[in-house]
Structures are given as C-alpha cells and as structure tokens.
Amino acid sequence: MKHPTSLHFLGAGVAAHIYALVARDVLGPDGLRMTMLDKSHDVPDRTLCVWGSSSSAISAAAVAQWKHVRMGHGQRSIDLDLGSMVYSQYTAASIRALADERLDVSREVGEATGPRAQESVSLDSCDRGSDRFPATVSLLQHFRGWRIRTTEPMFDIDVATMMDFRVDQSHGVCFVYVLPYANNEALVECTVFSASVWDAEQYEMRLKDYIANIIGTSGYQIIATEVGVIPMTDRVPQRLHGPSWIAIGTAGGLTKPTTGYTVARCVRDAERMMIAYQRTGVFTAPAPPPGRFRWYDQLLLRIIRDEPHEVPKILFTLFSRNPIEKIFRFLDEGTSLADEVTIFWSLPWRPFLRAIIRR
Ligand SMILES: Cc1cc2nc3c(=O)[nH]c(=O)nc-3n(C[C@H](O)[C@H](O)[C@H](O)COP(=O)(O)OP(=O)(O)OC[C@H]3O[C@@H](n4cnc5c(N)ncnc54)[C@H](O)[C@@H]3O)c2cc1C
pLDDT of the chain along its 359 residues, tens only? Predict the structure, then answer.
C-alpha cells in the first residue's frame, strides 16, 4: 500500500503526537511526511495516566508505572493487583519528545483554519463546534495537585491511588489521587466533578487534610503545582469535516465523558484508523462505540449533577465488587452486554433508576 503524500496535523497537542507515532508504527516510516500546525510554540505540560498493556506506540514515553491501584471510601481502602496490566504515567512533553526522536515532523506556528489543498489527509484537534449530538449534560472535571517531598518515607511506590473519596464532599464529588515516584515523593491531586471550578483554597484545604490525616505527615515541601480542567459532557462532535479531514483527540469526541481519560482511546482510534487505511487505501474515522456506552455515561453524568453524594459509593462499589480487568474493559467500552449486566447488578441501582427517569 502506498502512503498518503502527507499527514497534516491541525493542532499539535497530545493527540496529534499520538496519531503521528501510531502512523509510523503501523505504516512504517518510508514515504510518510508529517506537518504540524499549532497556534502556539508552547505546549502546556500535563500528567497523563493510562491503564492497560505496557506495549503500544507510545509506551517508550512512560515516565512512571505502577502494578497496583488503590481506592478509598468511608473507613476502607482497597489495593487491586493489575495482573498483566500496568497503570502508566506519561506527560504531554514525554509524548512529544518521543515523537521528536522517532519522526521527522515539520512544525509551523499559526492559526489552523482547515486543510491545505496539497495535503492529502488532515487530522484536526481543533474544536470546530459542529455536533453529531449536542450536550444534554455539561459538567467539569477540575483539579489542583501538589508534587510533594516528605521528610520521612511515606509512600508505597508500587501503588497508585486512583480515587480516594475520604475527603470533604460538601461542594461536589471530590477525590484525591496519589502517584508516588519515590518513597518520599508523590503527586497528590484533589479532583472534583461539578458544574464550575473552585477557588484554590477549596482544593488546598482538602489536600492539606488528606496529607495530614490519610497520608499521615506534616513534614513535607511542595515542589510543583498542577491545575487543570477537562469537560465532562455527553456532546458528540462531528468527526468528519470533509473528505480526509478527520477530527481527533478531545475535538473528535475521544475524551470519555465520565472519566476524562483520552490518551488510550486516541491510541486505539489511531491504530484502527491506520490499519483500516492499510487495508482499504481510504483514510476515515473509525466507527463509534455502541450507543449504549453513551447512555451509561449520560446516566452517571446525571447522577453526578443531581445526586453527587451517591457517586463515591457507586464508584467504590464498582471497583470493590468487580474484577479490575473487567472494570477497565468496561471503561474502555470493550465489554459485552452480558458483562455490563453483571457490572450494573453489582452497583447501588436506585440512583440509576432515578437517572433513567430524570432528564
Ligand atoms: C491537566 C489535564 C490532565 C489530564 N490527564 C489525563 C490523564 O491522566 N489521562 C488521559 O487519558 N487524559 C487526560 N487528560 C485529557 C486529555 O488527554 C488531554 O486534554 C489531551 O491533551 C487531549 O489531547 P488533544 O490533542 O485533544 O488536546 P490538546 O493537547 O489540548 O491539543 C490541542 C492543540 O490544538 C491547538 N489548537 C487549538 N485550536 C487551534 C487553532 N485554531 N489553530 C491552531 N492550533 C490550535 C492547541 O494550541 C493545542 O496545542 C488531561 C487533561 C488535562 C487538561
């Protein structure tokens, strides 16, 4: 199969570099020309976590990995062994550095308005505002975290805390996650699902409480701060803006509404896109996941909006009553209907029933 003359990326953020790396992996480097246009030279760095197998086109960009994940709620915390999977951390900068090492990308700075006539394929991570399905629920996942260094060894470096709800829940669904890099160093992040972002003090009050009462130390210094906002919406954007003009990344609807996870979805989408191109000679957007997954997301979004106090118990129960491999497959939208029945059967069902009735 002959390669397209070039892949032109409109926006050069996380998704563009993932699709570029996967294209090289699947199609090979020969004849593959890549250009990236972004409005800015500066790439905002961000911590990006992914679960799954440790081998993919981006795995060499991982900056940390864990074999166990922890969930906390009420008086309990549970540690789950990931078996053959890993929970990996990347950064926007590490993925871009891997692309710079492996690919010959020509970069330009400027406004990306649309494809150029001479480019055969345009992969677009800029939001063009056109919807396949408009939003019925729009919330935000917002967070503020501290990278801290403690005076005493406080962390188990094999265990990443994914969600610990043992924090004040009074203004939205709130949990802390902890990514340890050494026994005395970790990123401790306060994450919230709610309609609007908070003042810095609201996150920091919870971070201080969590570090004092759950991690159990007062001897630490803050060495970096991370803040961020991810949309939580059931909006489904258009993926095809024209022939060979395909939306990717968050602009292509690849951010999971209820979790914010995007990176692994981009890797899978890019693999399917490149393999289909190899087989058919046509570049197009892969088929969307079955519609029932959007409905599950809508139900959970409505519960987060209308009954946030129910959410910690639902998410803790999901992880404590189901095999971790099945939960990740469900969140990756790869389960069968029979799997999903057993998962929903394990959860508190009343909030879901109310969410089905409510709009
Ligand atoms: C702080 C933070 C933490 C996150 N953590 C995780 C995580 O742990 N795991 C996970 O899977 N996902 C995570 N996400 C979600 C998601 O992976 C990131 O938002 C990711 O950056 C999405 O990639 P993208 O390329 O779609 O968007 P971006 O990385 O934001 O890239 C879009 C690019 O397009 C450029 N652009 C936009 N409009 C134009 C225009 N008109 N002309 C030219 N250039 C333009 C922008 O400058 C930008 O560089 C996180 C998001 C944030 C904000």
Answer: 555 568 999 999 999 999 999 999 999 988 888 999 999 988 788 999 999 887 889 999 999 999 999 999 998 999 999 999 999 999 999 999 999 999 989 999 999 998 987 667 999 999 999 999 999 999 999 999 999 999 999 999 999 999 999 999 999 999 999 999 999 999 999 999 999 999 999 999 999 999 999 999 999 999 999 999 999 999 999 999 988 899 999 999 999 999 999 999 999 999 999 999 999 988 999 999 999 999 999 999 999 999 999 999 999 999 999 999 999 999 999 999 999 999 999 999 888 888 888 77
Decide: 260 in ligand 1 pocket, CB within 6 A. yes
At residue 252's C-alpha, the angle toward residues 247 and 253, to 5°, is: 170
Closest CA to 197 of 224, 167, 228: 228
Mutation test residue for ligand 1: of 8, 22, 37, 38, the one with most atoms within 8 Å of CB: 38
**pTM flag (> 0.85):** yes
**First vs last C-alpha separation in the chain:** 49
Q: Report whether 105 contacts 20 (CB < 8 A).
A: yes
What the chain holds in terms of domains, given with CATH numbers, is 7-66+85-134+234-280 (3.50.50.60), 138-232 (3.30.9.10), 292-357 (no CATH)
Q: Is 261 in the pocket of ligand 1 (CB under 6 A)?
A: yes
